[in-house]
Amino acid sequence: MSYQPTGAIAAAATTSLPEEIGGERNWDCRYSWVRDPSFTMKALWVAACPDEAHEFFDFMTAAAAHSRPERHLQIMFGIGGEHDLSERTLPHLSAWRGSGPVRAGNGAWTQPQLDVYGELFDAAFRVREQLAEIGPATRTFS
Fold first, then answer.
1. Which of 58, 85, 121, 135 has the fewest CB atoms within 10 Å, i.e. the most exposed one?
2. Distance of CA 19 to CAs 22, 24, 30, 49, 83, Å?
3. Tens digit of each residue's pLDDT (9 = 90 or more) over 12-29
4. Does residue 99 belong to any structural domain of this protein?
C-alpha cells in the first residue's frame, strides 16, 4: 500500500484489530516501518516497480534525516512523514466484536531498535545497485 504523495508504504491499512477476539492487544499499524524498506524494495524491483522502490527509499531517508539527532533512529514514521506517533485510545468508537480499545497512534515509535540502522543501510545498498541516479533526499540523508 503505497501512499503516492510521499512514496511511503504502510505496513497495514488497519487499526485496532485484535490479536484475539475480546483482547486488548489492538495496535495501529498504519505506519511506515524502517525495518521494511530493504525487503519491500527488493520485492518492488522483482515486480518491475522501480519508481515505487525509489520513492519509498526517498521517503525513508527524508523521514530519517529529519529525526532528532540526540535520539535513536525512529523505528517507524507516519505516511506523511510524521514523527510524533503518540498513542491514544478513542473510547467513543465501538471496537470490533467488543475487542477494545480502539487506538490511534502507536507507542512503539519511541522504542530503540538498533536493527533499523542495518535495514536502512541495506536499502541504501540496494538503491546503489538498482538506480543510476540518487535523488536529493537520499543525498541529504548521508
1. 121
2. 9, 8, 16, 32, 26
3. 888 888 888 888 888 898
4. yes
Q: Which of 44, 43, 113 lies closest to 72 in space, CA to CA?
A: 113
Q: What is the DSSP letter of 36?
A: S
Give how far Cα 76 sits from Cα of 14, 21, 30, 50, 61, Å.
Answer: 16, 26, 10, 22, 12
Within-domain flag for 75: yes
Model confidence pTM above 0.85: no
> Which pLDDT score, from 0 to 100, does residue 133 have?
66
- Which range has the worst mean pLDDT, 48-57, 103-112, 133-142? 133-142
State how beta strands 8-9 and 2-3 pair: antiparallel
How many domains, in total, are found in the chain? 1
Give which of 114, 28, 110 is closest to 67, Cα–Cα.
110
Structural domain includes residue 34: yes
Q: List Cα–Cα distances, 99 to 11, 26, 27, 136, in angstroms.
A: 21, 8, 11, 45
Q: Considering the domain boundaries, does residue 142 fall inside one?
A: no
Domain limits for position 114: 2-12+20-137
